[in-house]
Amino acid sequence: MKKIFLLTIIISLACFSASAFDFGGVFTNKTWLSKSTSDVGISQSDKIILFGQQRWSNFSFSIEGFYNFSYENEINQYVDLSLLKLNFDKTLESGTRLVVDAGRFKEFDFSSFIIDENIDGVRVYSDFGKLSFTALAGYTGLLNSNSVDLVATSDKKEVKTGDIYNLAGDYILAGLKLDTSTLLVNQKIALNLYGLLDPDQFYENRSYAELGLKGSIFGKVNYSVSSCLGLNFGDYYTDNFEKSVLSNLTALNVSYFPRFKDMSISLNALYSTGDEKANNQFLPISLVSLVPACEFTFSQSAVAIAGLVTSIKPTDNMLAVLQGQVILSSADFSYTGFAYNAMYAWNIFNDLQVSVNMGQHLPKEGDANMKLSLTVSTAF
Amino acid sequence: MNKKLIFLSLFCFISAFTLTAQSAEKIEQIVGADSITWGQASYLFASYLDSETDDVSKSLDLLKEQGLVPSKKEISADSKITIEEYSFVIAKVFNIKTSLWYTITNSPYYAFKMLKNMYILDSKEVSQNPVSGRQAIRLIQAASKLQEQNTANDSASGDLQ
Lengths: 380, 161
Known about the structure:
Chain A contains two helices and 18 strands. Chain A has an 18-stranded antiparallel β-barrel. Helix content of chain A is 6%, strand content 60%. Chain A is globular and about 60 Å long. By secondary structure, chain B is mainly α. The A-B interface holds A 19-22, 24, 53, 55, 348-352, 378-380 and B 98-101, 103, 113-114, 117-118, 124, 126-129.
């Protein structure tokens, strides 16, 4: 057994030295000051990412791991593998492109509001020119809950933190995606279907059907609109709610590019259903942080939010971004708060970036929260 | 198809440099090569630098004299040049210093990374890959174009001041 193990290692090493292994890393240091009415605190995080890639003809192997250290009232540190993927990419004689990913990779839907997270599994993508098709199957139970934001409602999937590697809640994910750009000129239509199944006797399950449309109007304006229906099912939902009803998340983005200093002006709007009394709260697969200065993860569940984001590059190596958001209740669209955020990034070298970020979240009720951060990042 | 590509590349290169018939033959050999040697790479750079040398070994000596090749490695005119070594010579010839780590270490690997970050090199390129003749010329052209743009931007900002 030992001999076979040694032989496998030797063969693997021989494969890696036979052709070049591309590698590199990124080190990021972030210091931030957060202030609510009652409390002021300084926090710090350091993250080191190492990555490597090996290519052989139509195959490639990619690996990326990181170590994260942070101090926010207490020390927290963890490691994770954010990518461990064997990839096959070939264009067949018929012109069809076939891509297969196996291992740990990032999966995201049309809007990235349903899922934007790593999974362990297999994904097959085939592009027939007029139509592309993706099928995937994966498992979430081997991910590190310190670095993923999976949504789990039942106590059994409680998120654990504190250890260097905590296993995330276990779900089986299946997905099917169709994309076409032939029905309307310059417009892409997508249909994404996902099922998130609880392997523990199908106790807490969710399903999603998302329809999206994006494209360009008059050359300078890009838009993207999507709507997703969610349906929760399983004993957890039938035990805690009277009946299973459909939930919805609808997102809109319109971006204008004036062709001046790489400027962009974007209008974003998002609505997701949610009412504590009924089972219509939209529960995505993974959370996205919508309000940067908020002290907790302000996610895309049970909220209505509209915002304006503008960005400009004063010089080739500088970027300024300003955004403002109005937050409303998803139940009756009443005003619940406002948030703004300003960011300025300077690429001193093309592998050294310094950025300053300042934002504030002003809820209608409760304490305002302010966050000021300085980030230094270098790629090596 | 190959001939067409060779002549297209040759045409682009000739438009940038004045060549004799003998040099044109050498350039044609380089353009057709799947992986070029240090001697051939040096010949291209020497031609770009307006050197009158028409010999690949002398071209390499010229680059060595000017400190344009990595000092730590034993290099001969017949040895194959890798993409990271070629990137190093490009960075030296065109005086590109946009990477912190290249500026500190002066190494071929960080010269290669620097050109990747500047989109002169393809993101899929691996540091130990060989350099084809066509690719070698295309990279010189890309770096030269970038240098011209930077010079134009500098003089425009100088005029404003």
